[in-house]
Structures are given as C-alpha cells and as structure tokens.
Design goal:
With 166 residues, the chain is mostly helical. The chain folds into two domains: 62 residues, Winged helix-like DNA-binding domain superfamily/Winged helix DNA-binding domain (Arc Repressor Mutant, subunit A, Orthogonal Bundle), CATH 1.10.10; 93 residues, no CATH class. The protein is built from seven helices and four strands; from the N terminus they run H-H-H-E-E-H-H-H-H-E-E. Strands 1-2 form a two-stranded antiparallel ribbon. Strands 3-4 form a two-stranded antiparallel ribbon. Helix 1 packs across helix 2, helix 1 packs across helix 3 and helix 4 packs across helix 6. The longest helix is centred in the last third of the chain and has 18 residues.
Length: 166
C-alpha cells in the first residue's frame, strides 16, 4: 500500500482538528501548524467533510470540528476518505487489469490474488483498530498477528502500548 501525501496530510489535519477539542479551527491555523498551503488544507477538509469526518461552522468564530469524538474515528475511515487504495484482492484485480477488460488472474485458486488479499486485509485490519484518540494519546495498540477485525464501539484487540513514555 502506498501512503500518499493526501492521506498523510489529511490525517495530520484531522489530528490538528482533534487537538482543538470543541474550539473550531480555521483553515489558516491548520495550514500554519502543518506547513501547508491554505488551498491544500481547504481541499483536504472539503474531502473529509464530504466523508462525514469533520463539520464546518461559518462566521467569525467558525472553523472545523470533528464530526464525532476522536475515539470513534479510525485511521481506516480517514484513509478511505482520502484514497483509492484497494482493500482486498478483488479491488486489486479490478484496479490493475492491464489492457484487458478484467484481470487475467480472476480464478478461484489464483495464488497471486491470495497474496494481495492477505496483505491488504492486514493493512486495513491495523488501520481499523487505531483511532485518532489513541494517536493523540500515544497509545497505539500492538496488534497480535491474526487478530480479528473489530467494529467501532467494540474493545480494541491487542495490547495497548504507550509510546509516549521512556
């Protein structure tokens, strides 16, 4: 999986908004904090707003707020909003068919397809188990191999690791 600048900077903008808690942040403030142009931050926030991850308030005290609490927003939701990365082998085959109308390897026992599937499932499993709140608090779960995918509002699998302490 290639992590694009859009994904990286979009996540950083989300973290800026999350750190502001209930105080709306202006595009200019986020842009200055992250060293980005206001136009680019505006584009990212527009994408994130369309995905329902942030909301905007107009007026002199306006700006951007998270649409949900940081413990409800996973990295997978942010990444999904900002990218077109495949989630599984089906999407890889649809995305990269070559000059054919469909992937030449779409067969029941395609070994290449199963490799991509395993890789993408693991990536999305990890992204789905890390919330903005965990990132802000430097408490990223150390996920055990083979841990099952969990949905929001369920206990996070794996052990909590405090990267903030020495």
């Amino acid at each position: 999986m290639k992590i694009t600048s859009t994904e990286e900077y979009g996540l950083r903008c989300m973290l800026q908004v999350a750190m502001s808690k209930d105080h709306p942040l202006e595009i200019r403030t986020i842009a200055e904090a992250e060293g980005l142009s206001t136009a680019y931050v505006g584009k990212l926030l527009h994408i994130l707003k369309k995905a329902g991850l942030v909301k905007s308030l107009r007026g002199p005290r306006g700006g951007y707020l998270l649409a949900q609490s940081p413990d409800q927003i996973t990295m997978s939701r942010v990444t999904e909003a900002l990218s077109r990365n495949p989630k599984d082998e089906e999407e890889v085959c649809r995305k990269f068919p070559g000059e054919l109308s469909r992937c030449a390897h779409i067969k029941e026992n395609c070994s290449l397809r199963s490799v991509w599937g395993n890789i993408y499932r693991e990536i999305w499993r990890v992204l789905n188990n890390v919330t903005l709140e965990q990132i802000l608090n430097h408490r990223i779960p150390a996920l055990e191999p083979g841990t099952t995918l969990h949905v929001l509002n369920q206990p996070i699998a794996g052990k909590e690791t405090d990267y903030g302490s020495a």
